[in-house]
Amino acid sequence: MPRHEFQPGKLIAGPVLILAGVLYAGDAGGAWEIPWFVAIPLVTGGLCLAGAVALLTGRVRRRRRRGRTGADPA
Question: Which domain of life is it from (predicted)?
C-alpha cells in the first residue's frame, strides 16, 4: 500500500522547474548564454501542462471512485 497518492501533475512540474533552474544556474555560472525570455514560456508551459494533467487525473480518479460505489454486481 503506497503512503500517498501518485500525482502525475507534480511529476511534470518538478522536472520543468528544475530544468529552468539548471538553465539559469548555468547561465549565471558562465557555462552558456540563455536569453532572458526563455524562462517565461518554459515555466508557464510546464505549469499549464502540469495543471492539465492534474485536472485529467482528478477526473479519472473521481470517475473510478463513483463507479465503485454503484450497485452490487451480484
Answer: Bacteria
Say which residue the cell 536569453 belongs to. 35
- In contact, 20 and 51? CB cutoff 8 Å: no
Q: How far apart are CA 48 and CA 40, in angstroms?
A: 12
Under DSSP, the state recorded for 72 is: -
DSSP 3-21: SS---HHHHHHHHHHHHHH
pLDDT along the chain (74 residues), means of 10: 87 96 94 91 96 95 80 53
pLDDT value for 71: 55
| Separation of alpha carbons 74 and 70, rounded Å | 12
pTM for this entry: 0.78
Distance CA 69, CA 5 (A): 20
